[in-house]
Design goal:
By secondary structure, the protein is an alpha/beta fold. Helices cover 45% and strands 13% of the residues. Strands 1-2-3-4-5-6-7-8 form an 8-stranded parallel β-barrel, surrounded by 7 helices. Strands 9-10 form a two-stranded parallel sheet. α5 packs parallel to α6. The N and C termini lie far apart (54 Å). Bound molecules: 3-methyl-2-oxobutanoic acid (KIV) and zinc ion. Residues 18, 173, 175, 206, 208, 238 line the site of zinc ion (ZN).
Length: 405
């Protein structure tokens, strides 16, 4: 059964803005447009295209995306300043549906050391900026920067004022990745209980990964009622990155029984989106990265391989096809057992006697003790040695050369 649209979690992708703030992740205009198209195919709800007032290059890229990419709402980040807001509006004018994403810090640390504003000045500044923006954009989102470290009573006041001034999406960022799940969920509950006009807005979260908790914090916020999550492909972003889109989306899909909600993401495009981003930025994901890493559906241990060969549900909680992988893989290595080795031979149409099989399996184990990752041609060479001498004629083995082994 489909989750009703109003209950679904909206995915606000910020790969092209916060993601691009990762050291080594900068993209040129063409690359940003290409990546925006990948995100549109993924069916994200909002693409944050960039920060138009931050540079001429960012302005041009946001404009190019706004003029050419269809589907999602297109957003631009803006400081809470008249000139930034005007620049953002100009860059996004071509979009079918645009959104100003206006941020202003609310925490005491930021008010004191960065903004040099008191509470009253912060509230006045956000009122002025949002009132201006509401007449210029289809949608206005307000982010209380460093919300997770803001005094809750002042945060509630700022959120109330932002909604009064016209914001219809209220984003609660954990800017420095300081929050922990239970506490962050409670902050969302507190805002829902204390802010009288909260039902006029969608609550959103934007979590950084400094303690490795960005996905967990975002999920805790969803449990508490947040219905937009800001995230990035492969979790790239400032410092340790942002909430990883693929992990969050697959957590909601896989555990819909628990969360009772889902996203509108075409999950079969996840591996493609991850690969495209790596290709464009050169930032590789680790092999064991959840959902999109090459090891995410690879099994090496004998007991696991046996289980998966009997039924994938023994050791897989997601289907590889659902994230865009062709299938799982049985990696032959030092922990593999007879079942997987036999399966590997069968897949290659290699048949032999029981004795030959034992001999080949023992040779394979000896090879594994010498090499971390035996290669396909090395495995074939072992089997060829044993099976071929016995007059076997498998087409796979016929093409195996022993040179270089
Ligand atoms: O981390 C943060 O607070 C941000 C805001 C601009 C949303 O990126
Ligand atoms: Zn951020």
């Amino acid at each position: 059964m489909q989750v009703p649209a109003e209950d679904r979690v909206k995915i606000f992708d910020t790969t092209l803005r916060d993601g691009e703030q990762s050291p080594g992740a900068s993209m040129n205009l063409e690359e940003k447009v290409q990546m925006a198209e990948v995100l549109a195919q993924l069916n994200v709800d909002v693409i944050e295209c960039g920060f138009p007032a931050s540079s001429e290059g960012d302005f041009a890229a946001v404009r190019a995306i706004a003029d050419s990419v269809d589907g999602p709402t297109l957003a631009g980040l803006s400081r809470c300043r008249r000139d930034d807001i005007a620049r953002t509006e100009l860059a996004l004018r071509g979009a079918k549906r645009n959104r100003a994403h206006i941020f202003l810090a609310t925490s005491e640390i930021h008010r004191t050391y960065k903004l040099r504003m008191n509470r009253g000045e912060v509230l006045q500044c956000l009122r002025d900026g949002l009132t201006l923006a509401r007449d210029l954009f289809d949608e206005v989102e307000f982010s209380a920067e460093d919300a997770a470290r803001t005094e809750p009573d002042f945060l509630a006041e700022a959120v109330y004022e932002a909604i009064e001034a016209g914001a219809r999406v209220i984003n609660i960022p954990d800017t420095v990745g300081y929050a922990v799940p239970h506490q962050f969920g409670n902050l969302i509950r507190y805002l829902r209980a204390k802010v009288p006009n909260i039902n006029k807005a969608v609550l959103s979260v934007h979590c950084h990964n400094d303690l490795g908790l960005a996905v967990a914090n975002s999920l805790a916020a969803i449990e508490a009622g947040a219905r937009q999550v800001e995230c990035t492909i492969n979790g790239i972003g400032e410092r340790a990155g942002n909430c990883s889109l693929e992990e969050l989306v697959m957590a909601l899909k896989t555990r819909r029984d628990y969360y009772g909600t889902d996203t509108g993401i075409n999950t079969q495009n996840l591996v493609y989106a991850s690969t495209m981003l790596t290709r464009i930025t050169g930032l590789a994901v680790s092999r064991n990265k959840a959902v999109v890493g090459v090891n995410a559906f690879a099994h090496e241990a004998g007991i696991h391989q046996h289980g998966v060969l009997m039924h994938p549900s023994t050791y897989e909680i997601m289907r590889p096809e659902d994230v865009g992988r062709a299938g799982n893989s049985m990696v032959l290595g030092k922990h593999s057992g007879r079942h997987a080795f036999h399966y590997w031979m069968e897949e290659r149409d290699i048949h032999c006697t029981e004795m030959q099989f034992e001999e080949a399996f023992n040779a394979f184990k000896r090879l594994c003790d010498q090499k971390k990752e035996p290669q396909e041609h090395e495995l074939l060479a072992i089997v060829r040695d044993i099976v071929h001498t016995a007059g076997h004629t498998s087409p796979v083995l016929a093409n195996v050369s022993l040179r270089g082994v």
